[in-house]
Model the fold of this input.
Amino acid sequence: MSSKKTILCIGAGYVGGPTMAMIALKNPDYKVTVVDINADRINAWNSDNLPIYEPNLLDVVKKVRGKNLFFSTDVTLGIKDSYIIFVSVNTPTKNFGHGAGYAADLQFWEKTARQILHSSDENKIIIEKSTLPVRTAEAMESILNFNEKGISFDVLSNPEFLAEGTAIKDLENPDRVLIGSRETESGRRAREEIVKIYSSWVSEEQILTSNVWSTELSKLTANAFLAQRISSINSISAICEKTEADVDEVARAVGTDSRIGAKFLKASVGFGGSCFKKDILNLVYLSRHYGLSEVGDYWESVVKMNEYQEKRFVLNMLKEMFNTISGKRIAIFGFAFKADTGDIRESPAIYIVKTLLEEMANVVITDPQAINNAKIELGETLDDKVSYCTDPYEAANNAHAIAILTEWDIYKKLDYKAILQTMQKPAFIFDGRNILNHKELFKLGYNVTPIGKPSLRHF
Ligand code: NAD
Ligand code: UGA
Done:
């Protein structure tokens, strides 16, 4: 019989790896194993070259790896040996059949459920860590509990709220931990086991318990609300550009209202990341599935506004550069969907670069962490029109324009005077993150187009 202090996490990705490293660090008396079908990923987790870039992650991993944290490809053994199983596999948007483009693709999820059943010969606690549509736990329970082995499973929901780039900070000091279970005796007992794990470093008031369906819906709702704030301020940025209002000033004024709050009001080229779009579309699907078409339309508009923002950014570039960028070298500063990560999933940079290439521009991409992922995303097809370099000075050399697409700190500290001397004239900067000092740049001689503020032009 496996000890109650054995934890398995299926899926060693952006969530599974960091979350389990933190749980292992804070619970030295538990044995934590993370498994994945992707052997390269597991090898990387077992090396000093982790598969994801996340500040301070390596330090945490090094403290526990080989002691009470293990990475392995042996999913079957992992299941057999563990009492508590977190499932943190990917749940992308379905791109085929019924619900294509909106619903969650649950094939990885269901495969995992069947594998857990196949490899188990005693009762276990299963925890949804992945973000899933409401009532997925019910489907998992059905697959697991209709068995002839005489064993039973409690399925709980414990969604993750970490953000990439700040994962360790978020895990160490979460706003809240949410644990949903059934209100049965065994459901409550299972919930206590999970509460116990988190309470070794999270205060009692921050551990919220609830029923499974509320928990599942809370995760989708939290992401939808966060994304909605960005789309709201981005919609205002479009008005600012027409009226000479300044979106950062509007955000500051609005955000000081304590009922609104200052966070997530930074106008940008658009939100990216693997989850906001997918989770909102999931909510849209769910709403329409229950006949709530107005609700679905409401949330879909958040995604549409984001697409509009990305599109507007490229159109502004084109307009400022005399309606032609064909043959012009454009330096892209930042390809990651946000700073401090190498992740490019749904990054606005993907759409923007592809559109610039359609306009026959020569694009050079620089990013401190995301160049390899950018190469994979853009592939071979775009041949000599796109190139990559790690040094932003080299990227800007001979360029007609710089587009800031990720708010990496290093881009705030570059010598833009020296850069200007190496660029074609007139030189343009499109600040898709509003991180630079626009007036200073204008004084140096640049033509500057921020988000949600008038362009500064020398002609
Ligand atoms: P990811 O793609 O980085 O990792 C998922 C891993 O699961 C992959 O390595 C994949 O190989 C593995 N996998 C898939 N099927 C498997 C199977 N049958 N057996 C073993 N391994 C399997 O995904 P992620 O970004 O870690 O996201 C995981 C879930 O967490 C998603 O539902 C996502 O919505 C949610 N989430 C993500 C974040 C984030 O910041 N990325 C934050 C909160 C929640
Ligand atoms: C987001 C949520 O913040 C997490 O709580 C959640 O767990 C996670 O999604 C998830 O479910 O995957 P993440 O996508 O990693 O985290 O990063 P965010 O900091 O939320 O940024 C998302 C995007 O919005 C980025 O492209 C970022 O640049 C953009 N953003 C963010 C803005 O444009 N303006 C802002 O004010 C804030």
